[in-house]
Each structure stands twice: as C-alpha cells, then as structure tokens.
C-alpha cells in the first residue's frame, strides 16, 4: 500500500528574525494539505536575551557553546517565546499546531555531546525519535511544531542543531509515511555561482553532489547541510527540497531538489 | 458506568521557586497512579528576567499587568523555562509528560480581559477547554503539564491566572472523568487560626464555607481561591483538596477537603 505523504519543513534564523516574513511563511505552511511537521531554529532573540541577562554568547565552529545559563536562555526563547508565537500564529491560520521540545512526550531523546577536542556544553546529539506518539498527533489532525531543544531523560535539557532535528524526525517518520523534507534558508537553492542568486541548481543526485563538492561549488556552511540531507535520503526520506521562504508557495519553481538517483 | 478517576494538580510560586522542593514534589506527582494533569503558575523567575531586561513589573490587585514586553517574558519563562524543566524532570521520573500552553492544540481558548476599571493588558479569561484532545493524550498515557499562558486564536498569547486554568481544565474534563482537584500552596490547608499552621480545617462543605466567610476565617487571598474551588465543584468537579507540597504523599493526613455537601 502506498504510504501517505508527510511534509516536514525546517525554518531557520533568517525567516524567524523578521516577524513579517515569518507570519507570511506560516500562512503558506498552514495552507499545506495533508499531514505536516514544522521544525524551527533559533534566531537573534536568544542573543538579545543573553546580552540583556549579562551572558556572553560563545560560538565554536558555528555552534553555540551551551553552559547552564545559556541552556536556560535558549529554552526560554526557543521552547517558550518563538515556539508559542509560531503555534499561536498557526492556530490563527486554522492549522491545529502543537509546540514541542524533545522532552515533551519524550519525542526526541538525545545525549550530551561527547567531549573530544571541544566541550560544546549542554549540546545534544539525537538518539531516538518517538515516531509512534508523533503519529498519534498527526492522526488527530494536530501539527507538531518542534523547537531545537531535546532532553536526555535524566532531567537535562539540551540545545540541539535544528538541521539535525528535522532530518532525524523525517528519518523517524519514514517507516510510517512517504516523507518530503523542506529546508527553508536564505537562498533560493543550491547556487552554481554564489554571486548570482538565481543560478539555482534544480536537481542534485548523489553522483552530482560528489561532483559539486569536488568542483568546490558545495563548500563551507553548505557542506554539513548537504551532508545532513543526503544522510536523510539514505535513511529512507523520499525527497529533499531546499529553497528560500517562498519554497512552499505552489507557484514557486525555483528551488533545489535532492535525491539519491 | 463509573468513570475513571482523573487527578488534576496545581502548583504555585512557593513550590516552583525552590528547585529542591519542586523536584521532590514532581517525584510525588510522577508516582501517582492513573491519569493525571499538572498545572503550574509562575514564580519569581519572571520578575528576575523582567528586571534583567529592564522591564518594571506592575501589579494591580495581586495580578500582573501584562503589556506586550511582559507577555513575551512570561511566555519565555512559564511556557519555556519552567514548563520544560518540569517536563524533563517528570520524564526522568518515568512520567511521560507533555508541556502545553493553551495555544498548543488549541487546548485553552481565552479572550483578552474586557476593560472595566482596570486594563490588565494581555490577561486572558478562559472561554473553552479542548477536553477531547486532552483526553487523546491521557488515553495514550501522556500526562499534560499546563503553564498559565493561553491564546485567543487570533495570534495573541495571553497571561492567565493559573488557579482559573486548573479549575477550568478540571471542569472541562468532568464530563469524561471523575475529577479530583488538588491545590498545592504554602499552607497545610485552610486554617482555623492563621497563627497556628497546624489548625487545618479538614472538611469544608458549601454550608460551612459560607459560615467561615461570615466569621472572617476565610478572607483576603483565600477568598478568590475558595470561590474558584466551589465554582469548580458546582460545575461537576468531584472533590477538591488543598494543602502544602506534601499533599500528594500517601501518608499525609493534614489537608483540607472541599465538597458541596
């Protein structure tokens, strides 16, 4: 039997920081037919609140180092303010959203990242996704909205990379649904020429992905993102789309589709 | 058919402000048999964060006046930090908790309090409880943990009195369950003599309640709390218990039970 299509969408800082862009995007998301899941990253609000509270944000290799005071701030901002603002907006748009951290109903279990060279503090690496409970929500026409906070089932909340969360959730749901992962970021897709914002490569399969890495076209910050996407495809996710905030609009044709073959 | 017993428990600032007391209480709550719901109020953390962010908390008649900046702070602290800390602790204690605001799955719909003499700002008065969805959670052995934030389904989050939330949730669930409401506060129960912390009145029915008001024994801050409880009893809640943080311990005998007759 053909499985039902589940769309899983990730939005990051660039959409979240601008309330007008965010609310407009949430209208597009709310109007998607069928079961869907939203995952959101952080945004500059956490830095604002940290500064106001006298904390100095620390970043190593683009990842926030999370001490105890910082995990409190990101829990406040991501699981509290951003998550509930998004849920309230989706409710306004008749999407029956529910906001979740990984601790809620043990949806996303993680462990504190093992210290090798760098101690990232209370940063989580994902171990398991509670696809059974997430499916209970979907079957009741409820739309899960995940923030990037997980837990270790020992009482510790963990700051977790939102790209990782969305691909782990998509992988976890792939046994029950045909899954499509949508990454919304600041560009219209993977670009052939970084100077030309419209030079979107429309299709990338595994073979082409390796060519693009060798050619230096996929580099820097795109490398972990693309690695993450192909990992998801290899573990059962049906399709990955990458594009800007207009990705979900039905008349949008300019985005990148990733597939294995 | 006899309905199943559902215990609904409310904790307030005095338990929440002290992490050791809170975690000990959550162990008691986690070990309760059968379906259960927790509702928590705020605590001094919201005031701390407000001050750090340069906001001046404003109170009228014991209720926080909620401007836009304040609704952001209480959403961060109540729906974010406190709610997720509580959920993570319950998960640690093998209670499959899920943290919710009223916006989540439209669980508690409210409206901005109508301005009569005082404009309380973004303070919510409860209109409806989504008992159907709350029951889906309970039937899946998931324990809802509500913070005192609701929404108006127009995108606005609303700061809401936690005593009101817990009684509205209990009333809402009374069509499906035999309900018992447990109020945890700073005293061992309703006291005959406020100077004697052990002078607990063990049973109060509607008749005695009126006598105690006339005698001036129920006064001040206890008046709205007791009014709230008897309102719940009149609207279908089976039993109300009031006591301190040891209320849920099976060997605790010192608390007040309220009933209509």
UniProtKB/TrEMBL annotation, chains A, B:
The gene is argB. The keyword Cell division does not apply. It comes from the Bacteria. Pathway: Amino-acid biosynthesis; L-arginine biosynthesis; N(2)-acetyl-L-ornithine from L-glutamate: step 2/4. The keyword Lipoprotein does not apply. Pfam families: AA_kinase. GO terms for biological process: L-arginine biosynthetic process via ornithine. Keywords: Amino-acid biosynthesis, Arginine biosynthesis, ATP-binding, Cytoplasm, Kinase, Nucleotide-binding, Transferase. The record marks 10, 225 as: Transition state stabilizer. GO terms for cellular component: cytoplasm. PANTHER family: N-ACETYLGLUTAMATE SYNTHASE, N-ACETYLGLUTAMATE SYNTHASE, MITOCHONDRIAL. Its main location: cytoplasm. It is found in: Cytoplasm. It comes from Lutibacter flavus. Substrate binds at residues 42-43, 64, 159. One of its GO terms (molecular function) is acetylglutamate kinase activity. Catalyzes the ATP-dependent phosphorylation of N-acetyl-L-glutamate. InterPro entries: AceGlu_kinase-like_sf, AcgluKinase_fam, ArgB, Asp/Glu/Uridylate_kinase. Its EC number is 2.7.2.8. This is Acetylglutamate kinase.
